[in-house]
Amino acid sequence: MTETSTERSGPLTDLRVIELGQLVAGPFCGQMFADMGADVIKVEPPGQGDPLREWGRDGFPLWWSVCARGKRCITLNLRTEEGQGLLKQLVSEADFLVENFRPGTLEKWGLGYEELKKVNPGLIMIRVSGYGQTGPYSSRPGYASVGEAMGGVRYLMGEPDRKPSRAGISLGDSLAGLFSAFGALAALHHREKTGEGQMIDTSIYESVLAFMEGLVPEYQFEDYTRERSGSVLPSIAPSNIYDGRDGMVIIAANQPTVFARLCKAIGQPDLKDDPRFNTHAGRGENMAELDAIINEWTSSRTIDEIEAEMVEAAVPVGKVFRASDMLEDPHYKARQSLVEVPSERWPGILQQNIVPRLTGTPGKIRWAGPDRLGQHTADVLTDLLELTPEQVEKLKQSGIV
User: Which sequence ranges form a coiled-coil region, renumbered to this chain (predicted)?
Assistant: First the structure.
């Protein structure tokens, strides 16, 4: 099965997105549009392409097939006048343009928002950057790791006795892409009422900051600074990772009624009345003692045994999953949380399914990211811009595409 064997489906099939971004934040935004049926045309520089094409373990750049799924990929040299002209032609028939270059880059090429809205007043331009389009830091290069640090999450991640850790994923980039897609659809709603396009200014650090709960007002009014706390939340107990005989499991029972059920399930019903643990504050203050009691009970049992007893007692419980667990889990299978995606290079590849699920107009992953750089250049230029094959070949010979 190839990209031409299935039609786009979902709520956004009447929309077109021009994606100029590379690596993660902009392309993740584009991925969500493609998942929901939009025609996403990814523009890459000739001969180079998105660096994400090569990311991964040696010989296995598999992330590309997730982030580029469902997109048509073309090449276009935006540093040339002719390349800029071709982009403007594409933009004139597009609904969105998403980019995550350093602020000022597109303006240098004559492709800033003020220029592009001249050819398409209804254009919604999605701009993702480390620090935003304005402010004293706007011209700085900004990767997700820096945005996570400035947004506050990096300081809180890890154990308290060592330097902050990281999530092991590009968290800041993904959050910025998510907020960008949300903002773009809000702008689309506005355009449907007024006909006006607008610019979406998403910074990575503010996308992280938006997830930081009450961090700032807690400091403002209580003079309280959150610190790293490892696998627990301060004063919230029991809610931790516990050892089983064959893995790790999370048990969360900090609510009084749930805690009482947990005590009964582990054979210590009187524990709920123990002065150390009979209040929310007490359980938080004596977290280490309580966790030790629970871990003693879990460590003699398998994860399946722990889950069965906790589920029977209506206590929230969950295995700490790795990829191998996801492939075997019956709930994953029943909900098709992982789906097989058509791919020439990686036959049978499984990828995370579309989130969220729409009951009336669900999206569909039609194919994994195209392997060849510029794989759809000729199709897009001939179909959308009505160039002849001879004109496309001339553009190739001149290095424009």
Answer: none
- Quickly list H helices, 24-76: 25-35, 63-67
Rg (CA), the chain: 25
Q: Provide the 3-class DSSP secondary structure of residue 50.
A: coil
**Claim to verify: residue 175 and residue 115 sit in the same structural domain:** yes
CATH number of the domain encompassing residue 27 = 3.40.50.10540
Whether 230 contacts 160, CB under 8 Å = yes
Name residue 26's amino acid. Answer: G
Is residue 95 flagged as an active site residue? no
- 3-class DSSP state of 202: strand
CATH of the domain at 254: 3.30.1540.10
Residue 56: what residue type? G
What domain count does the chain have? 2
List 35, 95, 173, 201, catalytic entry: 173
Structure tokens at 16: 């077109």
Return the residue matching tokens 């929309």. Answer: 15
First to last CA, the chain: 27
Pairwise CA distance, residues 35 & 10, whole Å: 8
Contact status, residue 69 vs residue 38, Cβ threshold 8 Å: no
- Residue 128: pLDDT over 80: yes
Phi, psi of 21 (to 5 degrees): -75, 165
Print the domain residue range for 374: 16-211+333-397
Could you read off the pLDDT of 328-338 as tens digits, one per residue? 999 999 999 99
The CA distance from 219 to 213, in Å, is 12
Strand partners, 243: 248
User: What whole-number distance in Å separates Cα of residue 54 and Cα of residue 63?
Assistant: 9
Contacts (Cβ under 8 Å, ≥6 apart) of 74? 41, 42, 43, 44, 374, 376, 377, 380, 381, 401
Same domain for 349 and 250 = no
Whether residue 28 contacts residue 178, with contact meaning beta carbons closer than 8 Å, is answered with yes
Residues 185 and 255 in one domain: no
* Helix/strand/coil for 17: strand
Q: Which pLDDT tens digit goes with each residue over 54-70?
A: 988 888 999 999 999 99
Q: Is residue 227 part of a domain?
A: no
Residue 10: inside a domain: no
**Interatomic CA distance for residues 347 and 368, integer angstroms:** 10
DSSP summary character for residue 371: S
Whole-prediction pTM value?
0.92
Residue closest to 254 by CA, chosen among 277, 221, 270: 277
